């Protein structure tokens, strides 16, 4: 599948007009190209690659934030992602109010969401800040709340972007346990990360992106080992945590 970042929903009017009157700038930038990917229920897919390889763009396409210029993206079931949740937070609301807001945003019945509120707040471990406006939260606290919401509403597809590297070691371990439980319930997980060690531990498959293309695919252990060797040969140090 081919994608064009100019077709983002956030494309600015001035960029459109500028391109219309300056033909020399009409050339396309392909953030992703010829992507053919399928993730089945119960699979967890790690997406690795250098900065600028197209990892976050892929996640945004799967989340529906960006639209593909060619080809199609099909998602069966309810999909949740911290990209959506972060956009859904109201900084003037506290943790419980934001959880209710996101639940409404995702179309979850209020009765169902209400039963999840206290478990969400407890898992996020915000302490006294649970009663405070989200604007007072650190980035790690917002990430914890977002992760707690995303994994508490029984998604069929969960999209994660570096979230398991956020916060202290205790929360990371607790988060991994939650993700493993979702995998056991036959949920599909796509994990974009630089944390190669964690990805190798819990992902069943992996792909490597380079310049917008899939250049390697296979089991997570195999792909990540080859990626480490490639980075070493290039004189770079692929991060492991």
Overview in brief:
By secondary structure, this protein is of the alpha/beta class. 42% of the residues lie in helices and 13% in strands. It has nine helices and six strands, in the order H-E-H-E-H-H-H-H-E-H-E-H-E-E-H.
* Radius of gyration using CA atoms only: 19 Å
- Number of DSSP helical runs: 9
Major β-sheet strand ordering: 2-3-4-1-5-6
Q: Report the sheet-strand fraction.
A: 5-15%
Structural category is alpha/beta
Beta strand count: 6
Helix content: 40-55%
What does the secondary structure layout of this molecule look like, with pairings?
Layout: H1 13-21, E1 44-48, H2 55-63, E2 79-81, H3 82-88, H4 95-105, H5 110-124, H6 139-152, E3 157-161, H7 169-184, E4 188-192, H8 196-202, E5 205-210, E6 213-219, H9 220-233
Parallel strand pairs: 1-4, 1-5, 2-3, 3-4
Antiparallel strand pairs: 5-6
Helix pairs in contact: 4-5, 5-6, 6-7
Descriptive overview:
The chain starts with 12 loop residues before the first helix and ends in an 8-residue tail after the last helix. The radius of gyration is 19 Å and the shape is globular. It is an alpha/beta fold and 241 residues long. Helices cover 42% and strands 13% of the residues. The protein has a six-stranded mixed beta sheet with strand order 2-3-4-1-5-6, with helices on both faces.
């Amino acid at each position: 599948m081919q994608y064009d970042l100019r077709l983002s929903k956030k494309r600015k009017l001035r960029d459109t007009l500028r391109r219309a009157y300056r033909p020399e700038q009409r050339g396309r930038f392909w953030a992703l190209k010829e992507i053919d990917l399928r993730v089945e229920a119960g699979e967890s897919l790690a997406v690795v690659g250098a900065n600028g390889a197209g990892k976050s763009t892929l996640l945004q396409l799967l989340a529906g934030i960006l639209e593909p210029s060619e080809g199609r993206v099909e998602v069966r079931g309810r999909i949740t992602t911290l990209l959506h949740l972060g956009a859904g937070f109201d900084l003037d609301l506290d943790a419980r109010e934001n959880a209710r807001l996101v639940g409404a945003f995702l179309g979850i019945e209020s009765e169902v969401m209400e039963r999840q509120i206290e478990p969400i707040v407890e898992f996020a471990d915000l302490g006294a800040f649970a009663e405070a406006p989200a604007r007072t939260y650190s980035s790690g606290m917002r990430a914890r709340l977002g992760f707690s919401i995303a994994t508490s509403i029984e998604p069929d597809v969960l999209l994660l972007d570096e979230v398991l590297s956020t916060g202290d070691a205790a929360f990371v371990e607790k988060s991994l346990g939650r993700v493993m439980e979702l995998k056991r319930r036959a949920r599909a997980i796509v994990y974009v990360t630089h944390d190669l060690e964690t990805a190798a531990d819990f992902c069943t498959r992996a792909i490597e992106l380079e310049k917008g293309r899939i250049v390697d695919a296979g089991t997570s252990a195999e792909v990540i080992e080859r990626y480490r060797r490639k980075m070493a040969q290039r004189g770079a140090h692929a991060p492991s945590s």
